[in-house]
Amino acid sequence: MSVALASSPTSSSTQQEPLRVMVVDDSVVIRGLISRWVGSEPDMVVAASLRTGLDAVNQIERVNPDVAVLDIEMPELDGISALPLLLAKKRNLIIIMASTLTRRNAEISFKALSLGASDYIPKPESTREQAAAETFHHDLIQKIRSLGAKLRRTVPASPHLPGTGHPTTNPPLATPDRPREPLSRLLQAPVAQPPLVRRAFSSHAPRALLIGSSTGGPQALMTLVGEIGAVIDRFPVLITQHMPPTFTTILAEHLARSSHRPAHEAVDGEIVKAGRIYLAPGGRHMRVVRRGTDVAIALDDGPPVNFCKPAVDPLFSSAIDVWQGGILAVVLTGMGSDGMRGGKEIVAAGGSVIAQDEATSVVWGMPGAAANAGICSAILPLGQIAPKLVRLFSGDRS
């Protein structure tokens, strides 16, 4: 058994503690890589480096991690078997499943999401391929940081006092009419946020539904498409989910089962029709183009956009030339800001944007960026988005 442990944090500190990350993988090379990457981040620490799922289950209470990077295939106890045991011991543990890009592992990753895993990440087949290793490095650190954000304390590591431009360790001086505030209360006081601007919905009748999502997206998408059958039957639905090849194949199958409607990875040149769900295939951007009186799918192998491929912005932007103001776009849970720029263009062309709210998002990056940009006509919990879409596509304009 290969075990490396970091001391457990004290609970009395008023400073922001680093995220405690438990790395569980039977490959000494992968364990070493991830541990070095995590250890080099100022807001993270390697809480443990373990070889099997059994080690993780036995050590979790002593290690007390915030995030676990859990391999799927391991001796003694594999990742999918260890997952429920780990969550039983620590219910709020964030688990990121790691696997190579095979159909079997993609299916297991989807099962893991249904069992409580927060996300998944594909491992490169060889760490000798620099580009693949760099992508893995970037994506993993961003996932750990974004998913761990909800666990982080709200106190910054170098606190800034109100009205100052630099960190300090002393509270403001007391005055006769203002006694000294305890430092801990001062540092943890919530900062008032300006209200989010909401626009009126477009007066144009929507002619297509576009959806963008990332972290937490598969679960959100399956919930959403299962409740908008009336929309799918009459209008085309196009989805970009940040996801690698093979995984999008499995996701399309899940979407078909959830919606009871045809859903598939989009094919370059195919005609877009109502009654179908088109999913951007992993590793390729999906756009739409006008072909005479028809609308067709256009896939391309261009560089990543917003560090993503496929990306949401190319789909959103391309749709304007096809449907002008008749676009209704939805930005669901996900890291980063993909979809915000394309959403701005949709609104400028006369269309509308809906964002998932923070409370129901796994990560409020993408929908938060759209909401804070002031381009949304509604910011809704996931459970309220489908009924709203049904009403809007049925003629409601409010």
TrEMBL record:
The active site is at 214, 242, 338. PROSITE patterns: CHEB, RESPONSE_REGULATORY. One of its GO terms (biological process) is chemotaxis. It comes from the Bacteria. Keywords: Chemotaxis, Cytoplasm, Hydrolase, Phosphoprotein. Belongs to the CheB family. Involved in chemotaxis. Part of a chemotaxis signal transduction system that modulates chemotaxis in response to various stimuli. Catalyzes the demethylation of specific methylglutamate residues introduced into the chemoreceptors (methyl-accepting chemotaxis proteins or MCP) by CheR. Also mediates the irreversible deamidation of specific glutamine residues to glutamic acid. This is Protein-glutamate methylesterase/protein-glutamine glutaminase. It comes from Bradyrhizobium sediminis. The gene is cheB.
